[in-house]
Amino acid sequence: MKSMNFHRYRQFPGINLSDRQWPSKTITKAPIWCSVDLRDGNQALRIPMNLEEKLQMFDLLVEVGFKEIEIGFPSAAQVEYDFARVLIEENRIPEDVTVQVLTQAREHLIRKTYDALEGVHKAIVHFYNSTSTLQRDVVFHMNQEQIKQIAVEGAKLVKSLKEEYGNPGIRFEYSPESFTGTELDYALEVCHAVMDVFEPTPDNKLILNLPATVEMSTANLHADQIEWFCRHIRNRESVLISLHTHNDRGTAVAAAELAVMAGADRVEGTLFGNGERTGNMDIVTMSLNLFSQGVDPKLDFSNINRVRDIYEACTRMNVHQRHPYVGELVYTAFSGSHQDAINKGMKAQETREDNFWDVPYLPIDPQDVGRTYQSIIRINSQSGKGGVAYIMEREFGYKLPKAMHPEFGRIIQQITDQTGDELPPHEIWKAFEQEYLNRTYPYHLRECHIQMNASEEGASDTIVKAVVGINGDVVEFEGKGNGPIDAFVKGFNQYSNVHFSLESYSEHDIDHGSDARAAAYINIRKSSGRSAFGVGVDRNINLASIKAILSALNRLEA
Ligand SMILES: CC(=O)SCCNC(=O)CCNC(=O)[C@H](O)C(C)(C)COP(=O)(O)OP(=O)(O)OC[C@H]1O[C@@H](n2cnc3c(N)ncnc32)[C@H](O)[C@@H]1OP(=O)(O)O
Ligand SMILES: CC(C)C(=O)C(=O)O
């Protein structure tokens, strides 16, 4: 085997934090959420959102419950600037929502950003410069002091423009961009220098956003970085520590979760993890993770499909079928043992008294996010008898007796083995009809009259007069027994010379009301030892049973 070029990469260094506290913490409340869909999400799209799409996305974010929304980078492009103006001039920002705008720590961009915010009630001016070791070297060719000065000069300008514009509703956020690639003590030094400019207080906090601009380490090391920072920052009560994780290693959500345990107050992210490269932290997943632990997520994803549809329309991105909580297949089991457990779990759930959700393989109730139970079991060659029985009951109201499950399961398995494809419910129904209900050869019930006689002593007997097609001939017979089935079987045995016994019988209503039909399931065994189920459906339960007998016999003859 050829080995890969792993020696070109270095291990991320450990963090010196031997008494880390975060591993024994749990998250008991939602962090302050900030959506960056309209900025980090938008800047990574092949076709960025137009004004109309941005408005639609903004309205969705408000509807979901975000109170802080980064609406763009107004100094970057006209559409970004215009969007801020439309929101402000058309009074589209609800009272309780703060919009946030991003700018590089560069004078002309900061000034333009303030122009875009003219007249806003509440806004966060978010400015950044990269502080990472690598970018200082290869992008800026500056030393630590020079890079710190970019941040400090930016902070001074951002602060003075607030006064110049006389807008008390402006707050500040600073990001040492590429924080996770920056020496921790240096990132701290830069943030302290920025704090010295703003002089934040507990009533007037500065947001320090510590981005994992590129996800470079395992989530535990990220949590160590955040705990280290939270412990070393001065005036901790005067700053909000914000997270902004990316998903380069596929663990942005885990990194954000552990970092909240490590002390962060606020989390930036996007719907479904849209954003640069592999995306930003997925707020839907993180908030529903909290939800699934019994914590109020403070965001409303109770109609997840609507959120997905608007997201897909605005971004032209598709949500993956396996995306947590929302993907088409995430509440679906194809495999037999999962189906069996879900089927049993759903039944047990109906009888639970404590209302807690506890169904195998379904971490949350799909209905809590506006999904249905419709597709929790779907059938293909990996499926089992329990799943097939579930579909028959759920989709068509046929409660196949348990002893019949293996038989019908095998019939469906043969089809799925042949096609290799999923078998939708209507195809399962077709197979059921063909196998059990539509068989008329060699036996076919043409007429049947049932007469039940009750004697004064309470005993009763039944006479069945039937006309049955047998191998193309028409045979008329009469039988007497202690009930319609017994009478029919006796008569039939006599005239057809076919001998069998009844092994099991069950029946139920399929529909309700005066027009209700009944389904009967009868298992018969011939003297040869072979046995089969038959199914009959009729408005009259006795006729349904007689049809079920002939269905079973026909199957045994086939
Ligand atoms: C991690 C993130 O997601 S950060 C957000 C990223 N988002 C975006 O960049 C989207 C919007 N950006 C843009 O539209 C543009 O990049 C703008 C408007 C911000 C800047 O435009 P331009 O100046 O034309 O282009 P560009 O970004 O290539 O400029 C790079 C220059 O700015 C310098 N620069 C970058 N950040 C800073 C800073 N904070 N302070 C001073 N100079 C900076 C670079 O070193 C480079 O300098 P050079 O020209 O001497 O080599
Ligand atoms: C500007 C910052 C917060 C950013 O987008 C990043 O670092 O990913």
TrEMBL record:
One term of GO molecular function: acetyl-CoA C-acetyltransferase activity
Superkingdom classification of source: Bacteria
The keyword Iron is annotated on this UniProt entry: no
Enzyme Commission (EC) number: 2.3.3.13
Signal peptide residues on this chain, from the entry's feature table: none
Cited InterPro entries: 2-isopropylmalate_synth_dimer, AIPM/Hcit_synth_CS, Aldolase_TIM, IPM_Synthase, LeuA-like_post-cat, LeuA_allosteric_dom_sf, LeuA_N_DRE-TIM, PYR_CT
Predominant cellular place of this UniProt entry's protein: cytoplasm
Pathway: Amino-acid biosynthesis; L-leucine biosynthesis; L-leucine from 3-methyl-2-oxobutanoate: step 1/4
One GO CC term on file: cytoplasm
First-tier enzyme category under EC: transferase
UniProt keyword list: Amino-acid biosynthesis, Branched-chain amino acid biosynthesis, Cytoplasm, Leucine biosynthesis, Magnesium, Metal-binding, Transferase
KW Transferase (keyword) present: yes
Domain Pyruvate carboxyltransferase: 31-305
Chain intervals for the UniProt region annotation (Regulatory domain): 439-558
Reactions the enzyme catalyzes: 3-methyl-2-oxobutanoate + acetyl-CoA + H2O = (2S)-2-isopropylmalate + CoA + H(+)
Binding site residues for Mg(2+): D40, H244, H246, N280
GO biological process annotation, one example: L-leucine biosynthetic process
Cofactor: Mg(2+)
Subcellular location: Cytoplasm
Family under the similarity heading: Belongs to the alpha-IPM synthase/homocitrate synthase family. LeuA type 2 subfamily.
Function: Catalyzes the condensation of the acetyl group of acetyl-CoA with 3-methyl-2-oxobutanoate (2-ketoisovalerate) to form 3-carboxy-3-hydroxy-4-methylpentanoate (2-isopropylmalate).
HAMAP family: LeuA_type2
Record note on quaternary structure: Homodimer.
Protein name per Swiss-Prot or TrEMBL: 2-isopropylmalate synthase
Organism, scientific name: Vecturithrix granuli
